[in-house]
Design brief:
helicase, 42% helix, single chain, alpha/beta, seven-stranded parallel beta sheet, Rossmann fold, hydrolase activity, ATP-dependent RNA helicase RhlB, ATP binding, 13 strands, 587 residues
Length: 587
Amino acid sequence: MKFTEFAFNENLQKGIAGAGFEDCTPVQAETFKFLFEGRDIYAQSQTGTGKTGAFIISAFHLMAEHEDFKGKKTLVIAPTRELAVQIEKEAELLGKEMDFNIGSFYGGVGYNSQEKKLSDGCDLVIGTPGRLIDFGKSGKIDYKEFGICIIDEADRLFDMGFLPDLRNILRRMPPREERRTMLYSATLSSKVGNLAWEHLNNPGEIVIEPENVTVDAITQELYHVGTNEKMQLLLGILKKENPETAIVFTNTKHTAYEVSKRLEHNGYRAECLMGDLPQKKRLRIVEDTKAGKVKFLVATDVAARGLHIDDLAMVVNYDIPQDCENYVHRIGRTARAGKSGKAISLACEKYVYGLPAVEKYIDLKIPVAWADESLFVEDKSEGMRFHLRDSNSRADRNGRGRRDDNRNRPGNRGGNRPANRDRDRNRDGNRDRNRPANKKYPSNRRPLEQSEKHVQNLVLEASGGLDLLKDGSKPQVSQGKKNESRNIKRSAQNKKSQNRNYRKSSGDQKPKYNKNAPSRTKQDPKRVSGKNNINDRLAYYRDKYGEDFKVDEKTVKVDKERQRKNTKKKIDKKPEKKGFLSRIFGK
């Protein structure tokens, strides 16, 4: 079917014609049919089938012609920044003749410009879930204003863990009966089905089989080659086919960087695209590739989805993908919008084990081509080494591409830190570069605490050695005092050795401790005190001083009176026993 057969808005038809669209793809024709029936869309469609144009045209028509959606906004949710930018470009192309403001919102860039775009008014909002959630929490986006919601590549959103965010956004929007929802996914899994059943209203189902994409429109070839010959074969293929534009896919970012550099050394202008690049640089590379400034793009699977390059002639799988679905997404970059393309895969001993899964998934045995000697071209970069200096590499952390010059030097332990880095610190912890590194100042001596310094100063001040310590020397002792101290120590040692020798010669042993022996500090058990009565004390003193010991009667009388009073006090203080009822009632 042709676009002119549908009753689209007049200005929208001008935009479609200006974009060069004439015949509808199958997914576009089915989408437009359900659009005019007033139903939601639930579609299985691979990349390169024209689904972006399908939902953008549908949204513009509803906002321009349908009474329920005039004045309402459209929200498009995409999994990646590249896909969001791609949708924005196509929307600007199709809506060129329409008075709608379009904007894309994603992470990796500042908030200020995007917030200004929202405050100025945006009719078509295209964004990734993370940034949309941020703007929703800050009040910059009111989801109640959206009447149309489009979810692109839902399966990939689920794989990236965005399902909770999707549910959060959809719950904030108007009920499903009051909005139009379109969901597109490469596979109709159970998660996609559950989301459609929960948030779509009477959707029309569209299924575009992936075999139609991979088999009918793309010519595929497979070469078996060793890892050490892959670059030479790639150069030979590019020389033979001479494509206008091509994307070379690798499994790792390090390989992508290396392949792009080797292509440059062999005369091909190439750029590498990977997830670790800053967002501005990624966008610049994509724009230069689309504009034809970059003829060859070497990329990881970050470019396998959402990257649309007009008239891309060839896709080369430098590495067989480890995920069979990524094979379909990779080669889907070519043969877009009904055009033809070519996909060549290089199977080496490292990644050939992923080939059976790929062929099973596409239900096709990829034709094997023979590479003769003429197809191998000399690699001018052979013998060169190319290392990706990313954020995790040593080169980037040190700010230079070589190791520290102090490696393997005496005193170093294979790194940038000296082995005895504290050996030239004084007692206060300050750096003293004039101090020699010897045993006199060990490296493990810690600086003194403030309290320790105070005590040390008091002791030295009392001994008269504080001034000497300030000078960095130890207090000096006179030679006479040294000799006297030495003689005292020697005499004490001689006495110990004499006692030891005497016990050995006489057979005496060192007396052992007897726990039953009376202690010298223990008091005499017969001794009395003021707590004893007068008779006991008199008996004690007569036994000690003789029978002639006498005491005056007045003292005895006073002592007896005191004893009687003490006894009476003890009796008065004795608590009265109370019965059970008395303890309760206080009686």
